[in-house]
Amino acid sequence: MSNQVHSPVSHFRLLVVVGIVFSVAAIMLWRAVDLHVMNKDFLQSQGNARYMRTMPVAAHRGVITDRYGDPLAVSTPVDSVWINPAEFLTERKSWNKLTTLLSLKINKIERLVLQRAKREFVYLKRHIRPELAEKIAALNIAGVYLQREYRRYYPTGEVAAHVLGFTNVDDVGQEGMELAYNDWLRGESGRKMVIKDRLGRTVKHVESIQAAQPGKDLALSIDRRLQYLTYRELKRAVLQYKAKSGSAVIMDTKTGEVLAMVNQPSYNPNNRSKLKSSHLRNRAVTDVFEPGSTIKPFTVAAALESGKFKVNSTVNTSPGYYQIGKYVVQDIKNYGRIDLSTILSKSSNIGASKLALAISAKNLTDIHSRIGFGFITGSGFPGEVGGIINTPTEKQLVERATLSYGYGLSVTPLQLARSYAAIANDGVMPDVSFIRVSEAANETRVLAANHAKQILKMLESVVSKKGTGSRAAVSGYRISGKTGTVKKADAGGYSLDSYVAVFAGMAPASNPRLAMVVTINEPRGDVYYGGKIAAPVFSKVMSGALRLMDVAPDNYDIKAAQFAKFSARGEI
Fold first, then answer.
1. Which residues pair with 169 in a beta bridge?
2. Which domains, and CATH codes, for the chain?
3. pLDDT in tens, 28-80
């Protein structure tokens, strides 16, 4: 066996190789420590930045329902398309497909992308249909993403539009109850961590950072059945008489709840692409008018309160006109000497004027303040106005006279409805509420109970065959109410051909549950009287409302006559 001798050169090479191996191993070990220990947080954040995203979790808005739980406003899930401009610019070849699906012009998108190139989030289109969102996702275009949001939908369309209002594209209330209760209805968005691929598609949900908090539901006082009934009849009348606009309000006389409130013209909150701004406002709370003869019951109430008049007191209205200085008050005919009930049933301006001038100015104006004229109702409805109240002095005889039959002050339909609710509720005026309640939050006595009952009885004569409001009658029920035909003010005084037709009433008169006001603004043609235009709307709506609410008939004379009629036919 021979001895192998290692040369110095070979030994040196071995040491070099071993040194290199250990050096490489040391470097790799150091690099591993550097990556996994020294720079772990930084490197993980960089990796996460490329694949992990913090995404918002949309929270749906609370549901608005009517008093029985039927939905009036709900939120439905939709998708919105957004882009990362820097990524999207690398996909120009795919722009045609995207713009075709979204019905957008390429030059518009190009301008948008270039203007906001330094941003990482730019909306292309909000609230698209689910089937369209699927097609967008299938394109697999880099830099194009979908985000889940919610869109408000209103099942009743324009029927309850003015009460509900609507939300904007960001689901923030803009009008009506959506605005008034925005903080209550609006949810709080959450956040979640997801992993996305290079095309922005979510491949894994990592964790929930903050859970979304849905908005709270809101039950309104509105009865959807009465709302539709009122909407249908008001719209029919406005179209029939080619009126400029119209409003109607139904209130619960005991609780002050608004059971129905409609306006014409209306709008569809689900499609506002061609919306006129003039159609948005809720005229029942934002528009004022001079109430005309519908104010006369309160003139009679002031006369009773003064102690100078009793229910059977009479006033001489002969010869059909009444001279006050240079001003002349007229009735449509000479009614002669009439009692307070006839002043209302015949709507005598002379009778009302003589009552007003026989009592103090303070007696007359105090009652207007007590029943809420000149002040907002406190309903909380956005944009509500208080109107104007006139307070003439003792020497202002003409102003006192005209005030007695409804000129010189302005009210909203809601205010007028509440004042009639006070008559119906034995002189106690409830707070107005658009929210469902079981009883009135606050009640204010504005009339003595005996006076309220006396006026309620007098107003039945208005709806009799001999009264101006006979067309407001409802078969089987006793109705109390008052007509009004108001000349509209213009630059030179009062117009000769522009009117507001009004009817305000309560039913059933034996124990009123409902108070309703109907106004028809500027009907065209020869028919413009409140008793002929507004009263029939009241009759049709109230006929359906009383039956829908299962209110028992109280007109026993009519019931007896019907019984006799059917009996004679042998049908009983």
1. none
2. 54-219 (3.90.1310.10), 224-266+283-562 (3.40.710.10)
3. 887 777 666 666 666 565 555 555 566 666 677 999 999 999 999 999 888 88
Only one residue has tokens 């009465």, namely 226
* The residue type at 168: N
Q: Which long-range contacts (CB under 8 A, 24 or more apart) does 173-177 make?
A: 175/280, 175/282, 175/382, 176/282, 176/381, 176/382, 177/64, 177/218, 177/220, 177/381, 177/434
Q: Helix or strand or coil: residue 153? A: strand
Catalytic residue among 293, 353, 461, 539: 293
User: Active-site residue 419, yes or no?
Assistant: no
What proportion of the chain, given as a percentage, has pLDDT over 70? 87
Specify the pTM: 0.83
In this predicted structure, which of 22-36, 296-310, 458-472, 475-489 has the lowest mean pLDDT? 22-36
**Interatomic CA distance for residues 543 and 300, integer angstroms:** 28
150 and 185 in contact (C-beta within 8 Å)?
A: no
Q: Would you say residue 416 has pLDDT above 80?
A: yes
Q: What angle do CA 143, 147, 149 make, to 5 degrees?
A: 160
- Nearest CA to 346 out of 189, 496, 462, 439 is that of 462
Q: For residue 53, which amino acid is it?
A: R
